[in-house]
Amino acid sequence: MKSITLKSGNEIPSLGFGTWKLKGDDAKNAVAYALKIGYRHIDAAEIYDNQIYIGAAILESQIPREDIFITSKVFHDHLEPEQIVESCVNTLKDLQTNYLDLLLLHWPNKDIAIEDQLGALNSLKEKNLVKSIGVSNYNIRHLTEALDAEIEFDVNQVEFHPSLNQIKLKQFCEENGIVITAYSPIAQGQDLVLPTVLEVAKKYKKTPSQTILNWIISQDMVTIPRSNKEDHIKDNFGALGWEMEKSDIERLNKLNTNNRLINREWGEFD
């Protein structure tokens, strides 16, 4: 599977499986199927309230732990240093693992110094409980403040799809060695019917979903589509194993309409 080398030296698979809104046995079964067909990157979060089921699926897969990349996140209201540590400990217990490959600050929290938040993540890294650290839903201002803390982090997970391609943010991340992980990559289905997406998909004899996911992966980003339907999970995996021409990447790059779907009040988006 295609992967990207993070600043920390760890390899993150370019295609992951998202678990937001998956509950109970739906979460367990979806993760189990994703692992069965070849996914090796699972994206989780404490706030999703499903990590026990994800952990069970991973354990029952009998795939060696070192072959699976697991991401989790600490939520916006749980970012005091001691809370970050507590969240990590709880997550490790729920996932039945002794380390995370990546732990993210799920949203910005302006009431807590960013150096304290990143410092807590880094302390977990130093204890080998976490291999890499990062942030999520950070804009350029947030990232600038985080970089000023001079604590190395690897990833910024953000909403990213053809109708919200965040070009300036992408460029800033590239310049600073921060890898973008794209969530909601098909805009909750909205971008699957864009005429340009359909035209490019037809050219490569791929589905619209495969086309969008490949467009993201082709730009050295990670993406984490989510579904509880086996046919969709399998279809998304078909984003791998083929290359899109640069001219078609550029065509899809022109579809931005700043169509942000996830906009929490604490996000402070530009």
UniProtKB/TrEMBL annotation:
Site (Lowers pKa of active site Tyr) residue list: 73
Active-site residues from the entry: 48
Annotated residues for binding of substrate: 106
Alphabetical keyword list: NADP, Oxidoreductase
Listed CDD domains: AKR_AKR3F2_3
Entry annotated with the keyword RNA-binding: no
Single Gene Ontology MF annotation: oxidoreductase activity, acting on the CH-OH group of donors, NAD or NADP as acceptor
Keyword Oxidoreductase appears in the UniProt entry: yes
Sequence ranges assigned to domain NADP-dependent oxidoreductase in this UniProt record: 15-256
Signal peptide per UniProt: none
One Pfam family of this chain: Aldo_ket_red
Similarity annotation: Belongs to the aldo/keto reductase family.
This protein's name: Aldo/keto reductase
Organism: Candidatus Doudnabacteria bacterium CG10_big_fil_rev_8_21_14_0_10_41_10
